[in-house]
Amino acid sequence: MNVLSGRALLLDMDGVLCFGRQPAPGLARFLDAIAGRRYLCVTNNSTQTAAEVARRFAAMGVELPAERVLTVSEVLRDHLAATCRPDDRACVLGAGPVAAAVAEAGLPVDPARATVVVVGLDLTARLADLGPAIDALRRGARLVAANDDPVMLTEAGLLPGTGAVVAALRATVDRPTAGPVEYVGKPSVVMFRRALARLGVGADQAVVVGDSLASDIAGGAGVGAGTVLLTWGVTPPHAPLEPMPDLVLPSLDALTDAIEESDLHTGVRP
Ligand SMILES: [Mg+2]
After folding, report:
1. 246 alpha carbon to ligand 1 midpoint, in Å?
2. How many Å lie between the centroid of ligand 1 and the Cα of residue 176?
3. What's the distance, Cα to Cα, between the start and end of the chain in Å?
4. What 3-state DSSP class applies to 142?
């Protein structure tokens, strides 16, 4: 028996299932091992929609249907729809799914009169693109961000994450006048509750698998789920473990081994 026994899986994407456009070693075997379980890929990556994520995995030769993917953009859309007033205007930093979330929330884009700055990830952005957002924040606009992840793990290594963009923006605004940043993605309980509801399980029947202590492990523990850290992503093997995950494993293959072992003990497999 271990924390994986019989539980639904909430799987981080980058640093667990893939590294950018590269499939994680052992991915096909892992997906085969969990085929009989409830699972959902829960990602802070705002650069692709669920359908685009499904196509990315198909291009890698594995099947991960769009309905198995919850992206932060979906949560962002609902947060904006629930919190924005009719006279609010947006300034948007982020790739297509972030702009789509703003549009679907019914929030007009008008950087010169923006009352809400919405930040996701756009790996093609230039520093000069931050200008209108800086102006809006200095006028007192709210700052809504997909997440506070400092780095993004890609096939080319680490790149600045959404949290790094937020930090850059915050550095340009006088601290006393800056309001709190509204983060909607992991480790927010909002995103995990939504994932649990999608799977139809309670937190005590779920385990979060991720490579980030701050977003996956802290968030999973915060909502009351089990937690498994993979140490081949943004958290190096010898990093101080705070919070302490229920299980620490070096790779997806090691996770597959642990799942197959737990299935043996729970009688899922003969
Ligand atoms: Mg990750």
Report:
1. 17
2. 32
3. 15
4. strand
Q: What is the pLDDT of residue 265?
A: 73
Measure the CA–CA gap between 208 and 40, rounded to whole angstroms.
10
Spatial distance between the Cα atoms of 230 and 251, rounded to a whole number of angstroms: 6
Is residue 246 part of the annotated active site? The answer reads: no
What is the rounded CA–CA span in Å between residue 207 and residue 205?
Answer: 7
Q: How far is the CA of 77 from the centre of ligand 1 (A)?
A: 21
What pLDDT does residue 270 have? 45
pLDDT in tens, 138-172: 999 999 999 999 998 888 889 999 999 999 999 99
Question: What's the gap in Å between 234 CA and the centre of ligand 1?
Answer: 7
Q: What domains, with CATH codes, occur in the chain?
A: 8-44+186-266 (3.40.50.1000), 85-183 (3.40.50.1000)
Query: What whole-number distance in Å separates Cα of residue 168 and Cα of residue 113?
Result: 21
Query: How far, in Å, from the CA of 205 to the mean position of ligand 1?
Result: 22
pTM over the 0.85 mark: yes
Mean pLDDT by 10 residues, the chain (270 residues): 89 95 96 96 96 96 96 96 97 96 98 98 93 95 96 88 95 78 95 96 97 96 97 90 95 96 70
Active site residue 253: no
* Residues 268, 269, 270: CA angle, nearest 5 degrees: 125
Q: Which of 14, 211, 216, 263 is catalytic?
A: 14
pLDDT for 263: 81
Residues 83 and 98: their CA atoms lie apart, in Å, by: 16
Q: Are strands 22-23 and 18-19 parallel, antiparallel or unpaired?
A: antiparallel
